[in-house]
Specification:
There is one protein chain. It is built from twelve helices and ten strands. It has helices at residues 12-22, 28-39, 95-101, 105-112, 122-138, 146-158, 174-182, 235-245, 252-261, 265-285, 301-307, 325-334; strands at 76-78, 83-85, 167-169, 187-189, 206-210, 224-228, 289-293, 319-322, 338-339, 349-350. A four-stranded mixed sheet has the order 3-6-5-4, with helices on both faces. It is globular and about 65 Å long.
Length: 353
């Protein structure tokens, strides 16, 4: 069920901030689809046109379109005795079919060339996402280096298998000592480091990550996840709470795009690591640069190395400061890349600040 909230225009900044930062509400992709469905008359029963002006066409008139034959069929819902045509169904029974059959140009192109799964496979797409995250945490990848293999075996032996159902879509040292002493859980956000570069789960009770960033890469879908440490002291309590409180409201359309985008995230992260490290090495050697903020050149590198995986790199996020303002201006004016405040995309982003 989709509900709409109507509010005075003066409160728009507050409402926008709430939607952006609380995680409540629906995603932009789902909102766009529902808005189109509402304008086209799909979200109102044929018998009651609330506008009363007859501008909305009957439900069946919306079905004629170009594209695969399955888009041209009148949707039906299976009942125990017979098929029911959409025209004769109340709106509540046809929303799922509408989500699967409303034609969007982008969706048609994606499915036409076989890049996206069908919406009916959203559950399998979610499972694939969880499996990829769990697999990355288990560090199950091949290597010909015996030293690396020994390290991997040691990591796997000291840390139990992460199961797919311990991954939900949506450090050691002094902090660990304090947590053990005062009995509180440690939650680590590893978005910037990412699963393949740093392995922090053994030292935390929960690891959270924004899948919107490097896991997706395409910057066209939002999502997040939390991973429970099965060896953590609070695992049983957190797991029990999650089983009660967790609701899988990740929309099928977003799950489909997230699954598609993340198919190459291992190779993509490896390339990002190499490119960023090469760029930072050039900047570090330049007389125009005052400081390069990157794990490899940081004073806290020793802490990063403590959690870096055997084949991990230093990620793709870095910042620099110039010795003079004119040099900084000239640099950013000449830099032909996209501008934006995000990170982890499969294209280069810069943000002058």
């Amino acid at each position: 069920m989709i509900s709409a909230v109507v509010y005075p225009k003066v409160y728009s900044p507050v409402v926008k901030s709430f939607w952006q930062h609380t995680g409540e509400g629906i995603s932009s992709r789902r909102a766009e689809l529902c808005h189109k469905a509402f304008n086209d008359g799909f979200l109102a029963p044929r018998a009651t046109n609330r506008r009363g002006n007859g501008n909305r066409r009957p439900f069946t008139d919306q079905r004629s379109c170009k594209g695969p034959r399955r888009y041209q069929k009148r949707p039906s819902v299976k009942s125990e005795n017979h098929d029911l045509e959409a025209d004769s169904l109340p709106v509540e029974l046809t929303v799922r079919e509408q989500e699967q059959t409303i034609v969007e140009g982008a969706q048609f192109i994606e499915e036409r060339y076989g890049r996206n799964l069908d919406l009916s496979l959203a559950a399998k797409a979610k499972f694939a996402i969880r499996t990829r995250i769990a697999g990355a945490l288990k560090a199950e990848f091949n290597t010909d280096d015996p030293t690396v293999e020994a390290q991997l075996r040691a990591d796997i032996e000291q840390f139990p298998r992460v199961a797919e159902d311990d991954v939900y879509l949506y450090p050691s040292g002094r902090i660990r000592a304090l947590a053990d002493r005062f009995n509180f859980a440690i939650v680590v956000d590893e978005t910037i480091g990412n699963f393949l570069n740093v392995h922090v789960l053994p030292h935390a009770d929960v690891v959270v990550s924004s899948l919107t960033k490097v896991f997706s890469g395409d910057s066209n879908v939002m999502g997040g996840c939390s991973v429970l440490n099965p060896s953590g002291r609070f695992y049983d309590k957190i797991k029990q709470a999650m089983e009660i409180e967790y609701q899988d409201n990740y929309w099928s359309g977003d799950a489909i795009f997230m699954e598609r985008n993340s198919r190459d995230f291992v190779a993509r992260i490896a390339r990002i690591n190499v490119n960023a490290e090469a760029i930072c090495s050039i900047l570090e050697a330049s007389e125009l640069i005052k400081e390069v903020y990157y794990p490899k050149y940081s004073l806290t590198k020793v802490f990063y190395e403590e959690y870096r995986t055997a084949n991990g790199g230093y990620g793709g996020l870095f910042s620099v400061t110039f010795r003079t303002r004119p040099a900084a201006i000239a640099f950013y004016d000449a830099l032909e890349t996209a501008k934006g405040p995000s990170l982890g995309t499969n294209f280069t982003l810069r943000l002058a600040w």
